[in-house]
Amino acid sequence: VGITGARLRLRLDGSDNRNDFWRLVDSPDIQPVGKCEKEGDLLQPPLGYQMNASSWPMFLLRTLNGSEMAPATLFKEEPPKPPLNNFKVGMKLEAIDKKNPYMICPATVGDVKGDEIYITFDGWSGAFDYWCKYDCRDIFPVGWCRLTGDVLQPPGTHVPVTKNIAKAQSFLPKSAPRSMPSPQKTAIILPTQQIRKSSRTKPPLHSSVPKKGSSAKNITPRKKAPKK
C-alpha cells in the first residue's frame, strides 16, 4: 500500500491499517503469489481477519481474481550477513525508529556488547533508543537514504548532558539530588528571555512594579480612615 525508497509498506488482505508493517524489497518475509501452493503449505488468514474464518478461501479467490501479481523477478535474495560485529561506540549511522517504523533517523552507536549494538537517536531522548543485532536490517550506513531515495528525518532538538556535567555528577554525595540537568536547561532558555526583554522599552526609574518576593498588598496604598 506504500513505497518509500527501498522499503514497502504492506497490509495483509482482510485486515485493516493497524497491522501494516514495513519490509525491505529483498526481505525473505515477502514471497511471490503461489509460493505456499508450490511448497504444499496452507495460506493462512491474517491476524485480525475482519470476516468469518470459513469465508477465507472464497475471500482469497475474490481478492486474487483480476489483481496484478508481483512478478517473481522483483523478489531479490537477502544479502549475506557480515561475519563479525565491527561496530564501535560513537559510529554514525541511519536507523529505523521502531516506535515509528516509517521513519529513518540519524543515529549513533551508544554501546556494543557481543553481537548487539545500542542505537541512540541524535537529538532525541532515550525513550526511542534500542538494542539490536549488528546485522539487523533496521540499520543502514550514512548516506543510505540519499542512495535509495528514502526520507531521512532531521535530528531532534534535545540537548544531551555534556561530559563535564556528567563528570561533576559522579563526584556528588549519594544524599545529593540527581536532578542535575535542570541548570543546563535554564542556561539554554535564559538567552531567549533576555532578548525579548531588551526589545522592550526600559521602565522608568520610579516604577510601581513590585520587586520579586513582595506581594501586591505591600504596595497598594490604603485609604486613610476619616477622623471622628
TrEMBL record:
SUPFAM superfamilies with a match to the protein in the record: Tudor/PWWP/MBT
PROSITE patterns in the record: MBT (PS51079)
All residue ranges annotated as the Polycomb group protein RNA binding region domain in the record: 192-227
Keywords of the record: Repeat
One term of GO molecular function: chromatin binding
Database matches in InterPro entries: Mbt, PcG_chromatin_remod_factors, SCML2_RBR
SMART domains in the cross-refs: MBT (SM00561)
An annotated GO BP: negative regulation of DNA-templated transcription
Region feature Disordered, mapped onto this chain: 173-228
Mapped MBT repeat ranges: 1-46, 54-155
UniProt key word Repeat: yes
Any GO CC annotation of this UniProt entry: nucleus
UniProt KW Metal-binding keyword: no
PANTHER family: POLYCOMB GROUP PROTEIN, SEX COMB ON MIDLEG-LIKE PROTEIN 2
Name assigned to this protein: SCML2 protein
Organism: Crocuta crocuta
Organismal lineage: Eukaryota, Metazoa, Chordata, Craniata, Vertebrata
Name of the encoding gene: Scml2_0
